[in-house]
């Protein structure tokens, strides 16, 4: 499938088009399996047109990852910009970002996107994306944790290290979610769903204890997440 040819595009629009096409190809075929020719044909652009914006396929990849990460980080920045809320409320808003996004979008589609991103062929791509988010999110979360320490509600000696740990813990859920998604419609579905709920509970229990909060203070923000996940229809 090719995108419609578009003439006389502004440079910024052409760059955005190339990123759109690359994102689709990288996550459907895998980065290594996607060729430069695939990108050129899908975007209906010449080699010269491509190299005007990107020097290589690798630079195109970094452009895709940066744009995805920027979208996540911009939501985090909005949370921390609220100077009127308490640190606990800011922490809740921060940890609920993922659940809020999933509920506000087509969740079955989000499940399939997640499944595709976590395919073996995309693991290196996904790890680079997560690393970019962690690097950008650490100072944002550190600011929330410092506010909590100043308010006397968090017990943390090193807010930056605590922020890095919490962001690392957030990826723990992905393994259980991948297994649950793969188990949909099989005899292992019930157990996989229970394990996913256990992973969610343990993730936030760990965050509570890292910050010196009472157990049960933080949560995913979407109690029906496991039920919604297991009820989505697997795509053949």
UniProtKB/TrEMBL annotation:
<dbReference type="Pfam" id="PF00440">
    <property type="entry name" value="TetR_N"/>
</dbReference>
<dbReference type="InterPro" id="IPR001647">
    <property type="entry name" value="HTH_TetR"/>
</dbReference>
<protein>
    <submittedName>
        <fullName>TetR/AcrR family transcriptional regulator</fullName>
    </submittedName>
</protein>
<dbReference type="InterPro" id="IPR023772">
    <property type="entry name" value="DNA-bd_HTH_TetR-type_CS"/>
</dbReference>
<keyword id="KW-0238">DNA-binding</keyword>
<feature type="DNA-binding region" description="H-T-H motif">
    <location>
        <begin position="35"/>
        <end position="54"/>
    </location>
</feature>
<dbReference type="InterPro" id="IPR050109">
    <property type="entry name" value="HTH-type_TetR-like_transc_reg"/>
</dbReference>
<keyword id="KW-0804">Transcription</keyword>
<feature type="domain" description="HTH tetR-type">
    <location>
        <begin position="12"/>
        <end position="72"/>
    </location>
</feature>
<dbReference type="InterPro" id="IPR036271">
    <property type="entry name" value="Tet_transcr_reg_TetR-rel_C_sf"/>
</dbReference>
<keyword id="KW-0805">Transcription regulation</keyword>
<dbReference type="InterPro" id="IPR009057">
    <property type="entry name" value="Homeodomain-like_sf"/>
</dbReference>
